[in-house]
Write a structure and sequence with these properties.
two-stranded antiparallel sheet; ATP-binding; Fido_containing
């Protein structure tokens, strides 16, 4: 389908500081890529793209209906999976043990805090979309949540950028960049236009999400964090349109499996290849949804397996903890005692028993804030991402 490509314009460039190579220091002209306004554009997939788009809708609906309604903990699990994979694309990977410590409120690494912030930003985006529309304030709030945890990025958390940015190339100037987004004075109008497109109800759902993401990444409206907010926008569109009311489709794992392919399709979108990006995301949605169903079944089997291993007494503290672990796989002593409904001594005995059985792992041995994790649940995060990666690579 015909889709307007980006317009390239040459602009003057003045370096803010004299650093980098001689080419950096002498650069005085750059070529920026200006996306078209898309609020009023229509898109209807045809042929192969239409067929795979329909397959993706069916796969997502099957995941939502088959497990989203009947396995409540799956929602939190998939949110975390999507956020962790999205962070890994940006080379932020704390590992699930450190991530678990951050979730439990323990002392955590900067990477773990950043991954947890990505979870909070995604939740904010999806929850806002559930109200019926996605507003600029929703994007800004998600960005504040994402970037506010780091001292060096907190000052730029929230507002749209007021400087020129770029992707790839030099650290100092846009020389040899793979993409130079539009100048900052155009960003506000382009985002207003994008949000008008996002809030339409007359477009094919997954195609709308795909185009919205590619357009957002092309605008690159923030100084940092654009990738994670842009990927969260996909989930927000699916929630707003009612396709995924409970589950988050873990599409970031598709992108993570082959980042070169992901960025290639984004660049082709900027040349007007909208069908290629819609097809790419649709195929990815099929793989992600089917792998998520496998993870859902694995998670659903865990409570009975845990009971077979621990053999808890009826109405005991360890029985109560086992029943809650799928929904609360990270817990500290206070949370555990609330779940167990018993004394601190009984709760600690139950935690010790489940740890000895290999069901729980002590992530933080600090006496002030011990944190335990259900290892099988957190390990499934890696298993799901790996399964999606295998499906993605085998398809290419």
């Amino acid at each position: 389908m015909n889709w307007p490509p980006h317009r390239r314009e040459e602009r003057s460039w003045t370096a803010r500081q004299r650093q980098g190579s001689r080419a950096d220091r002498t650069l005085d002209r750059i070529t920026v890529s200006i996306p078209p306004m898309i609020a009023a554009l229509d898109y209807d997939p045809t042929g192969t793209v239409a067929r795979v788009h329909e397959s993706a809708l069916i796969a997502i609906a099957r995941l939502e209906a088959g497990f989203g309604e009947h396995l409540a903990p799956l929602a939190d699990f998939l949110l975390r999976s999507e956020s962790v994979a999205s962070s890994k694309i940006e080379h932020i990977d704390a590992g699930w043990r450190a991530f678990g410590k951050a979730i439990g409120g323990g002392k955590a690494s900067d990477e773990a805090k950043s991954q947890l912030a990505a979870v909070k930003a995604l939740i904010a985006m999806v929850d806002a979309a559930g109200s019926g529309s996605i507003r600029l304030d929703d994007l800004l709030e998600a960005h504040r949540l994402l970037m506010g945890v780091d001292f060096y990025t907190a000052r730029d958390a929230g507002p749209l950028r007021e400087v020129q940015n770029w992707i790839g190339g030099s650290d100092y100037t846009p020389i040899n960049a793979t993409h130079v987004p539009p100048p900052p004075e155009l960003v506000a109008d382009l985002i207003t236009d994008l949000l008008a497109f996002v809030n339409r109800d007359d477009l094919p759902i997954l195609a709308q999400a795909a185009i919205a993401h590619a357009q957002f990444e092309s605008i690159h409206p923030f100084t940092d964090g654009n990738g994670r907010i842009g990927r969260a926008l996909i989930s927000a569109v699916l929630r707003r349109r009612g396709l995924a009311n409970r589950v988050t489709v873990p599409l970031a794992s598709v992108m993570l499996a082959d980042t070169g392919r992901y960025f290639m399709h984004l660049n082709r979108f900027r040349d007007g290849d909208v069908d290629g990006f819609v097809e790419y995301l649709s195929i990815g949605a099929v793989h992600a949804s089917e792998a998520a169903q496998d993870s859902a079944m694995a998670l659903a089997d865990l409570p009975s397996r845990w009971r077979d291993i621990a053999r808890p007494r009826a109405k005991s503290a360890d029985e109560a903890l086992l029943a809650a672990l799928l929904e609360t796989p990270i817990l500290n002593a206070d949370t555990a005692q609330q779940i167990a409904g018993t004394t601190a001594a009984s709760t600690y005995r139950a935690l010790g028993k489940l740890t000895d059985a290999g069901i729980l792992e002590l992530l933080s041995e600090s006496k002030r804030n011990q944190i335990w994790a259900a290892t099988d649940v957190l390990a499934e995060l890696d298993a799901l991402s790996a399964a999606i990666g295998r499906r993605t690579i085998e398809q290419t």
